[in-house]
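Dear support,

Our group has been running a series of protein-ligand predictions, and this particular one with zinc ion is the one our PI (initials K.S.) wants archived with full inputs and outputs. We had some confusion internally about which version of the output was final, so please treat the block below as the authoritative record. The input we submitted was:
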Amino acid sequence: MESGVVCGGVDGVKMSLEEGLTRREATRLILVGGGYIASNPIGLAIQSRHDAQPSCTYTLFQVREGLVSPKDYVADKAQCLPEVRQAISDGKLAGILFQPTDHEVEDAVSHSFSSKIEDPVRVDQLVRTQMKNYVNDKSQEKNKRNIGKFIPSLVAVFGEGHPHYILFTDNLVLFPEINNDADVDSIFRHELEHLLDFNRGITLGNRRLSYAVLRGEAYSAEFMHHLLEVRATYNELRNAFYERVTKGNSSVSPRWLGHQSRYYAESWDFLKKNAKSDFEKEISKLQLAESNGIRPEIEGGTLFISCDLFGQKVRLRIVRPK
Ligand SMILES: [Zn+2]
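Confirmed final output from the archive:
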């Protein structure tokens, strides 16, 4: 659970977006979309081959057997997952960084800010604020289960159309809850949802949340964190339930599904019970209504996830692994 991060109000104040499985150190790969490749000194260039058919070459098994590097595996994913390729070709996803150095992260945020902001003084200010937050987060990250995060993550660019980067740690291939390629795909989908929310802003009912709106409203960083986590995890679960209804079972592993189901329930519960300001209450109500097709339910101390989408009701009992 994130805490203590203040956000809202003024430029450059950090929004806490990194979740339990998404914050920590980072490192060196990477895939970069579009024209940035030529001038970008970091990482591995990935073209957005949206004219080609998606096909993944490498597997998590190969990575764990030492046959394929995690970096090549991630680069391959960026090309074979249609949603990722779409975000690259739309200019929303500027790149994916695997275990980047701080310098590489700084290059990336600088590129992101300067793509939409002309004033170099302002860009420099935002880069310094973002990097200060990023480095500070790393130093405070005691939980080593972070898998990914994205940058920039300043409220000042929320809904402003900036291109963003996804950062992965090697937990993407090491985390014990991750058991197969579908689990990894699901994590890409999760981070992509965050990125798109941040790029476009969030529309709920007739409300559109962007920096211009958020700067005038009362809300906590923790509330915003859970709002974004409900949305990203819903996206993962929705895909899993869709497969279950249409194909008979989900390709994500039961362990990852259980992990994310508990995570979903936690953030859902927060929105339901801990919205404080009028703004938080309004947004919470709208989000829970939008996410109502997938609901966490506790019965006798056991978590169930009910899905009533795709014309068929499904209810899963979520058992915590021993
Ligand atoms: Zn998340």
